[in-house]
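Case study B.
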Amino acid sequence: MSDTLESVLASKRDAHLSQLIDLLRIPSVSTDPALRGEVRRAAEWLRDDLAGHGFETQLLETGGHPAVVARRHPHPGGPTVLIYGHYDVQPADPIDLWDSDPFEPVVKDGQIVARGASDDKGQVFAHVKGAQVLIEAEGELPLNVTFLIEGEEEIGSKNLAATLEKHKDLLAADVALVSDGAMLPGSVPTLTYGLKGLAYVELRVRTANRDLHSGGFGGGVPNAAMAVADIVSKLKDQNGRITVPGFYDDVQPVSDEERAQFERVPFDETAFREGIGVSATPGEAGFGLLERLWARPTLDVNGMGGGFQGDGSKTVIPAEAFAKISCRLVPNQDPERITDALVAHLHALAPEGAEVEVLRHAGGAWALSPLDGRAVQAAADAVRTVDGRDPVFVRTGGTIPVVADLQRLLSCEVVLVDMGLEEDRIHSPNEKFDVALFHRGVHLSAELLRSLARA
Amino acid sequence: MSDTLESVLASKRDAHLSQLIDLLRIPSVSTDPALRGEVRRAAEWLRDDLAGHGFETQLLETGGHPAVVARRHPHPGGPTVLIYGHYDVQPADPIDLWDSDPFEPVVKDGQIVARGASDDKGQVFAHVKGAQVLIEAEGELPLNVTFLIEGEEEIGSKNLAATLEKHKDLLAADVALVSDGAMLPGSVPTLTYGLKGLAYVELRVRTANRDLHSGGFGGGVPNAAMAVADIVSKLKDQNGRITVPGFYDDVQPVSDEERAQFERVPFDETAFREGIGVSATPGEAGFGLLERLWARPTLDVNGMGGGFQGDGSKTVIPAEAFAKISCRLVPNQDPERITDALVAHLHALAPEGAEVEVLRHAGGAWALSPLDGRAVQAAADAVRTVDGRDPVFVRTGGTIPVVADLQRLLSCEVVLVDMGLEEDRIHSPNEKFDVALFHRGVHLSAELLRSLARA
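Model:
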């Protein structure tokens, strides 16, 4: 770190924390219509803060809550980084379980406690301050920076894809950074470069016009619950391979380099098993656990039901049953194509007497940035500078449609630079953010801009 | 019919109906503690009516509601018939849906409407009057008759088996008659000579200490819902045969004579399918539909569930799931032995990572009287006399523990001589009994005693 950046960071610490507290005081709960004005006030607050540091700013009207866009592009034709975050927050309910007012932040034991402290005001604001600090320290940003801070993440980012599409030129970037999650346990610096996609359907089976008495009809009629069980049991073979025809056709294998990287991840399988109380980690034969979790497509039943659900016994033959079934997808599987194949397969597996209907629930695309690409490697350099150690590179089985949208619609490499911790109680009472990690985030953001400019 | 019996029947019609109305006025709802006194009053009413016709009577205290026992045994060493029924009734709720007071009987369009009219006061009282008419017409009963009319059938006959065991000598009989159900559609005279038994268990699977996010854990952990589906799908093979080891060992095959009898039953498979809206009648390969329904053991899932049960989608991997599983059993399968084998099989089928627990729910024994035995054949003779046509002989997949108890504890042949109709709305508002079928029941009961005496 240059002396200049270091001294600016040190001189601004108190101001940064105080400003974050001001931002956290605004109850920008996007799901509550009564707080619509407060949501907009948070957007205006961020817009004004960025405008005060020489960013060209605007509020993009989306049809819902506005998105803040702030651009400072001092290098025409040079590289551009887009920093994505959100200023809306979850509701504070159950309010009784908070130890302090969720919108009157308190700092206690090195933690700032407030709704939105970690998710995501604290993390996105660290980026805002990082850019400002760098401008102050060096007189100018080393590359073009665009902030996109939306107000609808907690209600599904429903207008984001359309906004990205409509303002493609305004938002064009080479790399996107997202900080809206948690590091690996132990504050291990974590860079996430891949997410899975999702296909989600609901199988519904009907076998009769009503539930039937098993004394009168047992042995002579189809059973909807057993039909669902039969279908579900055929979705994987004995090697744990998914039987949907064509399912693996577009799956991109993991390279030897990446697999070697997986092996360097400090992953404790025993702790993993004990933490969730599983006695085995079954899955697709021929692949290691981390590769299955991160880079192989999977299928799970998420809910299943039919017939008598109460305590005790009832001698009924269910006429209806269902299974909610979802697949996590990897590059280059297309969620639509996989959904089509899954729907056709479920129909094909229907046993005699079972009328099958399949509903489609919302899915999402995967996202993957090259491990050896400039975005990931520049982010790793910044981590080394700030933390004095190598980051851990991870993929996840989770799906974040925003990240896939950024990658797909802006054609940029996306890196997730998580600044929070698993124990931050996001979405829960007493949400908090470690004050030291907030300041570290400001520093990291400034170094990210530097290293991306060098890349 | 002898002229004497015919004329006595004719002269008593109004009195019989009027007496039945008196009995139906007593709100003997066995499940309602507030009506305990009324339940006993119904028992006393029946005891007094039978005592007035020369029966030795007593109320057997059972620990719950009393059972009426009335014996007239004029032929020491001669054959004895036990007539079983119950004087308790279902609650009248929902009371708003009755067109008239459930305990103030009305006769309308040839139907007597009241709670208990068909289930079972009307049917058991037809037997009471049948015996009395025969005494009046012929001066004495042609065989020994014992009535056993209990007051706890609608609450599971929980004290009946102990009562039968305790009073074995008092209740000893060669044949038992039970009239507590419905004839085949179209008032077809129906004799039921076989019932299935029941084994009922609940499979519970646990795979983790909590539901897990499919994004974080998909591909690396067991899924309780899929484990239940896998186990259930293996309970039958592709021929519809139940895979529980030893399951069929004690199954008594149907004789050629009985199978020929099945084929004479006026059973319309198309109507059967259309009535319940099934497109197929799958089952154990190599057996006809009626044989499967009546005389082959079966297995059904009665309820199944796990994971997310609400509308829409949730990306959770269920940690717990269940299936309620029951088997209908036939001679000579032992419910306990089958339950043991089923429990062991469910444990053996558990996939990797699935912790299996199996609960046992209450089961019941099968019952079967020989088709060519004296009870069934004598009953058929009585039907021919009264109705001028052959009865239809049926078995059912249902389980009536009382019938199995009578057969097992008293070692007697049991025949079900149903006098009601499917449309009698038993257990529902506006329960009714056809007045002509009540009078026919009195006549049939008298003829049953005659033909059993001849047998």
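Residues 3-24 of chain B form the longest helix (22 residues). The remaining cases will be described in the next quarterly update.
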